[in-house]
Amino acid sequence: MDNSTDEYHISFFKPTTERARFNKKLVLWLVSVWFIAIFGFQILLRIVQKPTPEPSYLSYENVWDNVKSGNASASEYQEFGVATLSILGKVAIAPDERIILDNALSYSVLQLIPDSMQQKVIAHIKKFEFLQENIVSISDPEYLAEKASLTKHLSPRLGLSDMDVRTKLLPLELKSENITDLTDETVNKLPGIMKKYLVHNQSFLTDAKFLGFPFHYFYTAVFLLILFVGLCWIYCVTIDKYNKKMGIED
């Protein structure tokens, strides 16, 4: 039987012709450049990064021991409450972690209320919780009125100005359940939650700016895309030159 048809069986990994071998080497070289550009940068980020806390975390650390023991001053409860509220303003928070943060925030706010007014504030929070659960539309007048009232009376307790966006969030995160104490779960898990959301890995690669963008963002979102197009162009130009050299025409 004539085995000449084997010449048409092409394998990238087992090239049988000089051109196929050249093509394999070129592709592997370009893929290696692409691989190093992506994963090499990520490895470098891991090597040079260092944990960097947000200012809110430093405030939390300074007051946590006193808050936990119930010996914090009014200003310390303010710092603690604002730190927890700063996390609650973030987009992705696990439901069980939100419960702990809500307890910490609600407790700190209550400690800033005179004893004679605490039960009235708790009743106000309970009423707003009821409205939250039963409203059909967030434009409900009674709901909006209760929300505005809580914001007006409680945001100054945390030292928040009217222009602070966190004032809009505050009434939504106040919970009446266990408001008079920090639960055992809160005491045990809050330090880890605060660290998780308020301590970030940073380095000169993330802090530096390039063309107005953080360098790591520009590199991954713009440069790597340009590099990919460039590698494709290099492949096309190089293989065309090789084909002309070998006298091969499409």
Q: Your description of this structure?
A:
The mean pLDDT is 88. A hairpin with a 2-residue loop joins strand 3 and strand 4 (213-214). The protein is elongated. The protein has helices at 18-48, 55-69, 74-88, 95-111, 115-134, 141-154, 166-173, 184-198, 204-207, 215-246, and strands spanning 50-53, 199-202, 209-210, 213-214. A two-stranded antiparallel ribbon has the order 1-2. A two-stranded antiparallel ribbon has the order 3-4. With 250 residues, it is mostly helical.
What are its keywords?
2 domains; 250 residues; mainly alpha; two-stranded antiparallel sheet; two-stranded antiparallel ribbon; single chain; 4 strands
Oligomer: single chain
Report helical residue fraction. 55-70%
- Give me the count of strands: 4
Beta fraction = under 5%
Q: What's the pLDDT, averaged over the residues?
A: 88
- Helix vs. strand class: mainly alpha
Query: From the alpha-carbon coordinates, what is the Rg to the nearest angstrom?
Result: 30 Å
Low-confidence stretches: none
* Shape annotation: elongated
Strands ordered across the widest β-sheet: 1-2
First CA to last CA: what distance?
31 Å
Number of helices: 10
The biggest sheet amounts to:
2 strands, antiparallel
